[in-house]
Amino acid sequence: MDSKPTHQHGLTLVEACVVVAIVAVAATTATPNLQRFVEQRRLDGAATQLAASLQLARSESIARNRVVRIGRDEANGCYVLHTGPAGSCHCASDGSATCDAGSALVGSVGAASGIAIQGNVASMAFDPLHGTATPAGTWRVTARDGRAVHHVVNVMGRVRSCSP
After folding, report:
1. Is residue 41 very low, low, confident or very high in pLDDT (cuts 50, 70, 90)?
2. 138 forms bridges with which residues in the sheet?
3. Are 79 and 50 in contact (CB under 8 A)?
4. 163: closest CA among 32, 78, 40, 58?
């Protein structure tokens, strides 16, 4: 009779259940933080894109030697860069933009899911000669949880961003 001890390979059912329980607790505590992180990245991305679009409107105005406007389309949650009168370009529900005759589309950007773009001005025009903005205003990019990034555009057409 051989009295050598046998070595067990693998896990017992109790050990496997303990590991699954630890993983479940860790995942449950990490999920809210992950969602907050994703929402923060989405807010940062939308805010950066709006700041770039404001700068683009100013530089395109100077390059084209025409007034370029950036206007919000609250009905479809987007904004449009265009030449021509205020309100002459609109976003469609699919994210595309259309302009009336006499206006040219420079670009359009739809808001990301869960992000709202608001402001105290509906449209802002950039002068091609001086690069100034009329009227000066503040654009807010807001997430579902209330966090926001504000872009303040002064009369000189410069953008200053802050998170209150």
Report:
1. very high
2. 152
3. yes
4. 40
| Length of the chain, in residues | 164
Alpha-carbon distance of 104 to 28, in angstroms, equals 50
Q: Is the pTM of this model over 0.70?
A: yes
Mean pLDDT within 69-85: 87
Structure tokens at 79: 């904004």
Helix (H) or strand (E) holding 26: helix 13-64
Q: Is the pLDDT of residue 12 over 60?
A: yes
Helix (H, G, I), strand (E, B) or coil at 77: coil
Q: Left if phi > 0, otherwise alpha if psi is -120 to 50, otherwise beta: which for 102?
A: left
Q: How confident is the model at residue 52 (pLDDT cuts 50, 70, 90)?
A: very high
How many whole angstroms separate alpha carbon 18 and alpha carbon 45? 40
